[in-house]
């Protein structure tokens, strides 16, 4: 594999054979059979230990993300922080995996639900968050009593190996309380992902990546009636209304559109601006985009590092061409940058394209810093534009009007899993549920009650009387 910074070869990995992958899944399943009986707060101790190790090595891990995914240092550190945060969250959660007690209609009966460990969980992650997305899934899975089988992106195996090493260290340090194979790593290309998706010993597959990949995984898992947790493509929009604080909006927009070189699933891709201010605001945006410092992602002050690879660059060029053919007007950006950046990396100027509405190309998620700018007249039209794409991950509105904000957040408002007011579309905290609707796949990861995905619910009815009473008044006595 190569670094996106300068295409330098970072190493070679041998993809796991089918036999090896199967062995890893079976080992994880075996570990699960023991792990599920370890009390949850003790399972939390392993996660605490992993979190402490990540905390101690925050800078080194962030450097690895920069090297392998091309993120600027601050965003790479932010991603490691996200891993630490979910560890802390999961440790607390280990004492809160609670179910309900429900009133029974029968005398001297009690109903309750319990949440039990589910099994070994398959986790498929993408290059753009090579550590955090694993952490969301694995740390919750571990406290829930599951084992974990991780198939990271073939573009970011070093990040995965580094985390796996830390996990193994933590397991060793906790001696024989932890089954050794509770966290497994399988390196490979998409065949490895397919193997995981079809494996009957993995009751849950959590997959992050493109909607195309998610569809294949979902169908494979559905064929064996398994469970999926999908976090797929986004096509996130932000509405700027006349009452918005434009300085704040501008900052939020540039971070959301350009951060991580436009390669977050939460990246801002569509900007819907009120017609009364779109021309003036477009000028400010062009200025903002043209002034984004581009370069080596480790250099101080750089905000825009490289795209992941040549394919990403060509996909961006094709999207720009399609946008222009479909009537879009390029206001700025899109060119490759070759001066003042490391050789052989794919560095680009962020592109701003004025469009009349959701052109065909605008409906597609292109993983690059391209922002489509479109006007609206009435808030209802803006919300309709926001919703009129197949993806439904993140969305935002900038407004000082309570009426507008609440309309956007209400039942006829944004149809996305994330709807924000006066902040951008990306950079969510881990405490809340993360995910989206429609082609985004419907899954919710990280905070809130996302842990329930990693457990099975049992409903228990207990009769503590000495008579057998049937529900619904049914009489059936011999
Ligand atoms: C992703 O791009 O797959 O909200 C995840 C954000 C980050 C996570 C992005 N916390 O932008």
Mind explaining what this structure looks like?
With 478 residues, the chain is an alpha/beta fold. The chain folds into two domains: 18-232 and 441-460, Aldehyde Dehydrogenase, Chain A, domain 1; 236-421, Aldehyde Dehydrogenase, Chain A, domain 2 (3-Layer(aba) Sandwich), CATH 3.40.309.10. It is built from 13 helices and 21 strands. The strands form six sheets. The protein has a seven-stranded mixed β-sheet, sandwiched between helices. It has a five-stranded parallel β-sheet with strand order 5-4-3-6-7, sandwiched between helices. Helix 2 runs antiparallel to helix 4 (73-93) and helix 9 crosses helix 10. The longest helix is centred in the first third of the chain and has 21 residues, at 73-93. It starts with 17 loop residues before the first helix and ends in a 15-residue tail after the last strand. 51% of the residues are buried. The model has no long low-confidence stretch (mean pLDDT 97). The structure holds 2-aminohexanedioic acid. 2-aminohexanedioic acid binds next to loops. Residues 3-458 form the Aldehyde dehydrogenase domain. Homotetramer. Belongs to the aldehyde dehydrogenase family.
